[in-house]
């Protein structure tokens, strides 16, 4: 027998607020475990605007939602659970990006981009990524410490990598990283958020315009060439796509690099195990991805038809947040989920990269960057350690992508 929310209950009893704060950076918010056990499909109110949404917390249910065509990614649909302040006027002028498209538009654009991120293509990129990592570690070591690992290594590596792939001049990184960080912040006003998006789009508009007449050996130029033969996007679509890839291509991996290093430094037995056996590194990365699941609230959807999930009926027009951090701590899939285990056989079943047609295209690239960064640090900086107590670190509880603001280290 299915159940549906009683509309009157929204005024009779307030829902818990979302997002929920992580008590420990290496785990999920405490509320998630209780929700999985007692009410795996439950109601919450969005902190940003007070509107109701559904939270889905079990692994199988999150996969169901992310794989269901009745759960739309279109952020312009009424009921979509926005995670940032956005006015109705601004929303009316938003151009959908790949992450917020449904088929067939999504299918057409993704098909053109997939060849850029195949395992073979990423393998060809690995020597250059290694060069970038070595250059950054050389600079870090010459500074003699302590240094902030975020600005010295974690942010520059994926930022420079995605710049070279897209054909974005890296000398402009300070500007677009500032705009990107602003766009990730839950607490910005609609005006501040809109200004950051507009600034980045203006910058990318000029870049795409240049590449339309003077193409280079880069992803944007190759997309433009394919698009001339089979038009699936106009100029503004290409600018929006470039914004998504530039922001997504460095924000997530940068935060994951820093958090992964912190996890290793805070778990010295695991660090010693990796140093003794580098073959553990690929599975260790999957486990770190599972534990952190840094884009927890990025899998937002809105029902376009009634959907039954976990015995609960979600009505058409209602928002859904399929929480991958909650799913990745589901005890029925990951025994003792709060324990970091580099031998965990089921680690790769995590949903940190999403699931279904919107699964992260850059997963192969992110894994390569993480493997090269962690492996090189293990080899070249054996004395790496925190320069401040872990309790003093500031975490991104206010951001769409979880991370640490600074990570002071020495050696």
Structure keywords:
alpha/beta; 411 residues; six-stranded mixed beta sheet; 48% helix; globular; Cytochrome p450; disordered N terminus; three-stranded mixed beta sheet
Question: How many DSSP helices?
Answer: 16
The CATH first-level class comes to Mainly Alpha
Residue share in helix = 40-55%
* % residues in beta strands: 5-15%
The low-confidence runs, each spanning 5 or more residues with pLDDT under 50, are 1-13
Number of β-strand runs: 12
What is the CA–CA distance across the termini? 60 Å
Number of spatially distinct domains: 1
Shape estimate: globular
* Helix and strand pattern: EHEHEEHEHHHEHHHHHHHHEEEEHHEE
Return the CATH topology: Cytochrome p450
Report the C-alpha radius of gyration, rounded: 21 Å
**Mean of residue pLDDT values:** 92
What does this 3D model show about the protein?
This protein has 411 residues and is of the alpha/beta class. The protein has one domain: Cytochrome p450 (Orthogonal Bundle). It has 16 helices and 12 strands. Strands 2-3-4-10-7-5 form a 6-stranded mixed beta sheet. Strands 1-9-8 form a 3-stranded mixed beta sheet. Helix 6 (119-142) runs parallel beside helix 16 and helix 8 packs antiparallel against helix 12. The longest helix has 32 residues, at 235-266. It starts with a strand and ends with a strand. The relative contact order is 0.18.
């Amino acid at each position: 027998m299915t159940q549906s929310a009683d509309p009157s209950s929204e005024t009779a009893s307030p829902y818990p607020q979302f997002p929920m704060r992580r008590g420990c950076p290496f785990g999920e918010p405490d509320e998630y475990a209780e929700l999985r056990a007692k009410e795996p499909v439950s109601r919450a109110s969005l902190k940003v605007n007070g509107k109701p949404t559904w939270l889905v917390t079990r692994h199988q249910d999150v996969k169901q939602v992310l794989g269901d065509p009745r759960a739309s990614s279109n952020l312009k649909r009424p009921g979509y659970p926005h995670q940032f302040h956005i006015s109705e006027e601004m929303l009316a002028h938003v151009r959908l990006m790949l992450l917020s498209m449904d088929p067939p538009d999504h299918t057409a654009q993704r098909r053109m981009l997939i060849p850029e991120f195949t395992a073979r293509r990423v393998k060809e990129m690995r020597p250059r990524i290694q060069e970038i990592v070595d250059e950054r570690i050389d600079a870090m070591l010459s500074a003699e410490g302590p240094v902030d690992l975020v600005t010295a290594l974690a942010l520059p590596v994926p930022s420079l990598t995605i710049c070279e792939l897209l054909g974005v001049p890296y000398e402009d990184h300070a500007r677009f990283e500032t705009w990107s960080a602003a766009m990730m912040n839950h607490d910005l006003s609609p005006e501040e958020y809109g200004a950051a998006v507009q600034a980045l789009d203006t910058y990318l508009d000029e870049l795409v315009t240049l590449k339309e007449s003077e193409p280079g050996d880069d992803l944007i130029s190759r997309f433009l060439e394919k698009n001339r033969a089979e038009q699936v996007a106009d100029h503004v679509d290409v600018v929006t796509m470039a914004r998504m890839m530039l922001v997504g291509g460095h924000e997530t991996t940068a935060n994951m690099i820093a958090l992964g290093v912190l996890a290793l430094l805070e778990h010295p037995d695991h660090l010693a195990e990796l140093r003794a056996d580098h073959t553990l590194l690929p599975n260790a990365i999957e486990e770190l991805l599972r534990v952190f699941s840094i884009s927890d609230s990025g899998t937002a959807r809105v029902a376009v038809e009634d959907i039954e999930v976990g015995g609960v009926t979600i009505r058409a027009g209602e928002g859904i947040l399929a929480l991958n951090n909650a799913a990745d701590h589901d005890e029925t899939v990951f025994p003792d989920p709060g324990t970091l285990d580099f031998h965990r056989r089921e680690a790769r079943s995590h949903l940190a990269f999403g699931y279904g047609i919107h699964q992260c295209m850059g997963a192969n690239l992110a894994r390569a960057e993480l493997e090269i960064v962690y492996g090189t640090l293990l080899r070249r900086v054996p004395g790496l350690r925190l320069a401040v107590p872990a309790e003093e670190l500031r975490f991104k509880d206010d951001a769409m992508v979880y991370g640490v603001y600074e990570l002071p280290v020495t050696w």
